[in-house]
Design goal:
This protein has 673 residues and is α/β, with parallel strands linked by helices. The protein has 21 helices and 11 strands. The longest helix is centred in the first third of the chain and has 34 residues.
Amino acid sequence: MLAKAILPWFGGTPAVWTTCMLFFQVLLLGGYVYAHLISTRLSPRAQVSVHLALLLASLFFLKILPSAAWSPSGGGSPAWSILLILGANVGIPYLVLSATSPLAQAWFRGASPRLSPYRLYALSNAGSLLALLSYPFIVEPLLTLKNQAALWAALYIPFVLACGWCGIAFLRSAPAARQPVPAAPAAAGGKTGPGWRSRSLWFLLSACGSGLLLATTNQLTLNVSVVPFMWILPFSLYLLSFILCFDGGRFYSRAAWLLPLAFSCAAVCYVLFADISVPALLLIAVCSSTLFIACMVCHGELAAHKPAAEHLTGFYVLVSAGGAFGGLLVAVAAPLLFRGPWEYPLFWLLVPSIMLALALREEKAAVSIAYRAARLASICLYIVFAGLLYGYYRLETRSLLVMERNFYGTLQVFESSFGGAKILTLMHGQVKHGFQFAEGDPRRNEPVSYYGRASGLGVAIRALRGPGARRRPLRLGGVGLGAGVIAAWTLPSDRLTFYEINPLVLRLSGEYFTYLRAAAGAVDVVMGDARLSLERETAAGAAPRPEPLDLLAIDAFSSDAIPLHLLTREAFAIYFKRLKPDGVLAVHLTNRFLDLEPLVRGLALERGLKAVVIDNPKDEAAGAEAATWMLVSGDEKFLGDPLVKSSAAALPPAPGTLVFTDQYSNLYRLLRR
């Protein structure tokens, strides 16, 4: 709910989810440490008193949705801004929530020392899974964000009362107790609990599961779309593995999961090598199923090595610390240490390594011949997997001039050829953001790639400009800078404004491409989220008042994941405030996974506008990539222009349209089957 609320403020980037997840993992660790300390250092009466006080204090922080005052102005670190917003708006209530499971289990052990509390951990994760799955299928479709937050606050109050009742029940079960719940007596040899090897294993297994969860989520959101469904599916499988593994050990045995893990490595290789051509549903299925298998292994081994119940709060502290560490590796360390998105394959190297190390430690007499054969086969497959990953790395880095990464993703500039001619290409994830022919080529400063003369954008600009001496100056806008190819369309009397959120795109487009420097017209770049920037420009009293645009091009890709907050009813209202009454909105629809045509057409029809689709084929001689654009306008003169009419493709009947809003979206309806 909170990630969706702040997603438009940070450009709809996948890193918003990763950073939110990191926040909740770190605060989960804080809640577990708090539960461990009060359950081991305080008497039962003091435990209940302290926790009741914290419960009551949390009631003053029930307004969890951040106000518009928290929206960023375009400067500063997005990650730190997200952490600050979440901490200020939901920090105290979530700290209370995160402490509930380990503290309640400690109280249960104190009240019923003969019973194991570990199945309550499975029950706790089952509750989390139920809430998580209810969000996209029940809560999100039926309630607006404001109503969701109000319902959450209303349900939080009974939760506080229930926690208070549990504390009082705990005191009544041991009315004479004045000391903390006693720990187990010292074992033979003077050892008082699990050794450092066990504790290190808990930490490492938890870190691997958490890190792989976030790395897999990044893969999905980067290559499909940045919407809650793509966060919820992997997280649901992650929680399901906890439920199954801690429900008495019936669902996990090392022998049963060894070969599935090895074959998962092969599936990961397939996704990495064939990513550019994998259908969306297959990509989702492979990434999700392999994540589930890896999490079953990590959490199954975690459950198998759990300590006696008297050490449970310390165990949960290390598990949550490992989870937070895995989140830190993906959200913070990986963008700083790696030039590319290497954490996903690296976690897939680490998890099987731990599994095989544990398997090889077993005594030969303790395992069957079949199991030993499976273990040997897994080792062989793993060696092949490691070699293939090295080949993948070499493949990804060949012909590279630069690969850099920041909060918004990984960008590459590399040399290749197009139609036999040398080009430089800018890529974000798996998708081209424009290219330029090498110096000396007559097409060097011509509009190419997705923006050629036959493209929807080229047709719109040519129709707006008019023929021959009657050509009029244009005011153009572009959401998404890329390599800056659109600047090649400007004439000396034109002005083009790019809206770009990623400073790395601005730097690389200036260092490796000449479109901005060679543009005939004036070119400006406004940094920050395009929607927020456009909204500020059209706000009442905005100064200086910008001149209305003749054309606004929406071309904001993060790999194949178009930020859907740019394609909502509210976003279209902002665009058409910024455009002239006879202006044109050009939306780039080219996408492997999402069919955006019904959505854009539905948004146009709702505003009483018309839309046409223009497809152009690949043309190597002209430097054109195959592209699909939709042009939206209410100007009959523009729509009736012979150039537009002759280029437009036939549209299906209107009933296939749909409309998304800031409060509602449904990614499944856009997926290409």
